[in-house]
Amino acid sequence: MSFAVLGLSAPLLQAVADQGYTTPSPIQLEAIPAVIEGKDVMAAAQTGTGKTAAFTLPLLERLSHGERAEANQVRALVLTPTRELAAQVGESVQTYGQHLPLRSAVVFGGVKINPQMMKLRRGVDVLVATPGRLLDLYNQNAMRFKRLEVLVLDEADRMLDMGFIHDIRKILALLPKQRQNLMFSATFSDEIRRLAKGLVNHPVEISVSPRNTTVKSVEQWLCPVDKKQKSALLAHMISDNDWGQVLVFTRTKHGANRLTRYLGDAGINAAAIHGNKSQGARTKALAEFKSGAIQILVATDIAARGLDIDQLPQVVNFDLPNVAEDYVHRIGRTGRAGATGQAVSLVSSDEFKQLCDIERLIKQVLTRQVVSGFDPVHALPESHLNERPVHPKKPKKAKVGHRDGQRSGENARGYASRGKKSGPARKP
Description:
The protein is of the alpha/beta class.
C-alpha cells in the first residue's frame, strides 16, 4: 500500500517521495486517516516505527486547508519532553511541509528566548515546544491560543516520568476546549490513561506493538564483566569488532565524561551529550555523530531522548538503567524503520537487580557472552524469568523545580519527581 491512498495531498506526497519513502508503516496506516478525519487519537508505538510522521503528515494536511496563522497565534501545538525531541519533530515538520505555505517554530529552554519571541510574533501554524519554555513565552505574551486547532502530546509517558504533569495541566487550561487531541507514546501506563480521560474525546486507540516489548529487529545480549573493566572491555569490543557508529548509554553525566575521556585516550573518537553540556555543544556533537566525524556518542537517558539516527547499527548499555522501561527506549535507537541492529549490555554483579527487572519487563532472559580476557572476578548470578505481572508504582509528587528556560537541563522536574530531598534539581 502506498501513501497516496491515505488522503494526503500532492505537496505532502512529493515531500514523502523526496525522502525516499514509498510504503507507510503500520502506525502511519492507522493514524494518518484518523487524524485527517479530525478524530482524537491515542497511539502506542515504539521508537523507530514512524511515529513522528504518523502525526506530522496528517497535521500538515489539515492545516494546509485552513487560513494561515495570525500574529502571535498558534494553530497547532506539539508538546515534547526534551529539547532533542523537539528539534527532531521540528525538523520533520519542515521536511514534510517544505512544499506548503505553512510557518513553523521550535522553542525550548537552554537558549535565548528573544529570537523565539520574534519568530512567534508573525504567528505560526505549527509550534513544537517543551512545557517550561512554552509557559515562559506565554507569560511574556509571545503567543495566544485562541485559534488553536490541534494539540499533540508526543512521548506523553516520558513527560509524566519527568514531572511535567503540572505544566501540562496549566497548558491545557490555556487552550480552547474545542480542538483535536493526539497522544503518542511508547507505552500507555495507568497514569497516562488517567490523563487521557480529561484530554481526548472518544479517541481512536492504536497500538502497533505489545506494551513494554523490544523491537524484534534488534539482537540483544549481555557481557558479564567487573565494573572496573567496563571501559577497557568497551574499547576492546569497538576495535576488535570494527564497530563504526556506536551510541553508548551511561547512567550519569559524570560517567559519560569519564568514559569519553577514556575512549579518547585509547585513540577512539568520542563525544558526550548530557544536561551539563550547552545546547550548542549537544547539537554539534549529534551532527558530527550523524555525519560520521565522531565514531562514538556517549549519552545519558534524558539527553538521548528523541535522537533520530538513520541506520544506527549498534547500541551499548555501559550501565544498566535504574528504570527498566528505559532499557526499551535505549535499544529502540537501533533496528529502526525495518533495519537490523545490535544492543549489547555490559553488566556487573551489582547490577543484577536491574537486569532481573529488565528481563521481567521484556519477558525474556538475555543471552550471555563472556569476552575472553575480561572474565569477571565477581560473578553475575544466573537470572530466571519472573513471570509475575509488573504492577505500576504510584507516581511521586513532583517538587517545584526551575523551568527549562532558566536552566540548561530539560529534566529539572524529572529529578524532583524522583524524590531528591534538598538542593536544586540536577541535570543528567
